[in-house]
Amino acid sequence: MIADDFTGAGDIASFFRKGGARTLLLTEIPAAFRGDYDCVVLALKTRSVAPGEAVGQVKRAAAFLRDSGMERIYFKYCSTFDSTPEGNIGVVSDFLMEELEVPFTLLCPSLPVNGRTVKDGILYVHGVPLAESPMKDHPLNPMWASGIPKLMCSQSQYPCFVLKREDMVLGKVREILKGYEEKYEKFYLVPDYEDEEDGKRIAELFGDCALLTGGSGLAEYLADGHKREYPEVREGTKDPKAILLCGSCSQMSGKQIAYYREKGYDTYGVDSKKLADGSLRSKEVFDYVLEHKNVLVYSSAAGKAPDLGAGTEDFYRESRLMEELMAELSRMAAEQGFDRIIVAGGETSGAVTLRLGYGAYEIGESVAPGVPVMRPLENRKMTLILKSGNFGKEDFFEKALWEGRI
To answer: What is the rounded distance in angstroms from the CA atom of residue 61 to the CA atom of residue 1?
Structure first.
């Protein structure tokens, strides 16, 4: 699996692990690979970079996976598709089809358990077309359209077609593929995927393909052939020494912060403008963390309406400073013997994992769909929990503090 960010990597790894497969997550490409794993997930940081840079990273990742003997590659991107005209999902998928010399692949961003579904090529979030959902206002990756074939027109050089549920149920897929292969050098299929039965059906029909792309919705069903038995309990979380870091500004993150505070836990809101003018530094924040217990440090913009300055140079500078702060706090926590670091937000998770410097993680239980406990192989006393800003219910931070085992 090649994932376009760190939370996405943990997301798909968690579902493969739930399906019974022993799964390893790598945050860097090692010189050599050795280990008894059914699935290896490479966490790249390509979601918000230029398409050319994204292709370069994926090219190196694909070469490593093929050289290591991997039989199939899955390109994992966000279940909300990062739908901008300049997005890199299309160019990366084009590259992988060409590199692996396959005539077609799927675009399958569905994750029904988290409210992401596809019908007739339209991507929905909790029943609302993507471009009409709160995702439309994402400050880094605004969602401007809901139709996946339309989105791919500006990102890919190959045509994109809808694959209806009834055609899959009635066994017409082979006939449909033959027709497209006679007309087109390469192409994409967007299957209807609204529920668990759809996912199982798609995995059964296409699970042996050398290349698949999408969200994490198929992973559990793809893992069916790799089931292993795990001990029911290895260890619990009795009294964690934890720091919680939320750089996400999503509406759900705002609700999760409010819930955590209302339950009586300590929180610390960070104003990015104070980071920018130098009036707030990481030491001041971490001193508060040390004086209290299981503190949630969060961006004060979480859950609020999009800032009018979003997209400006000052906005991006303040976003980088917020990521830098969260990463530095994670480093300080690790050095002080904290044993649980919980992070919300894809870009923030990327910054944190890069700063911590761990290269490989074993995947454990999930504390929410798509959000597993991760154990660094280099530090088995530490657990990390990384989530996309919109994942989890309102009680997520409390659950992540106390639940989940390797």
So the answer is: 9
β-strand partners of 371? 368
Q: How far is CA 380 from CA 23, 305, 375, in A?
A: 16, 40, 6
Per-residue pLDDT at 234 exceeds 80: no
H or E element in which residue 15 lies: helix 6-18
List all residues 6 or more positions away from 347 whose beta carbon is below 8 Å from its beta carbon: 5, 48, 140, 247, 319, 323
Q: How many CA atoms lie less than 13 Å away from 345 in the CB half-sphere?
A: 31
Q: Are 319 and 350 in contact (CB under 8 A)?
A: no
What's the rounded Cα separation, in Å, for the pair 130 and 189? Answer: 19
Q: Give the contacts of 110 (CB within 8 A, at least 6 positions apart).
A: 79, 116, 117, 118, 193, 194, 198, 199, 214, 215, 217
The pair of structure tokens assigned to 220 is 């559990």
Q: Which residues in 30-39 are b (16+ Cβ under 10 Å) and which e?
A: eeebeeebbb
Instruction: Report, as an integer, the average pLDDT of 192-211.
Output: 96
Is residue 246 within 8 A of residue 388, CB to CB? The reply is: no
For the chain, what is the radius of gyration of the CA atoms? 21
Q: Is 264 exposed, middle or buried (0-12, 13-18, 19+ CB in 10 A)?
A: exposed
- Token readout for 47 is 């979601």
Segment 257-267, tens digit of pLDDT: 999 999 999 99
What CA–CA distance (Å, rounded) separates 149 from 130?
A: 14
pLDDT at position 87 over 60: yes
CB atoms closer than 10 angstroms to residue 230: 14
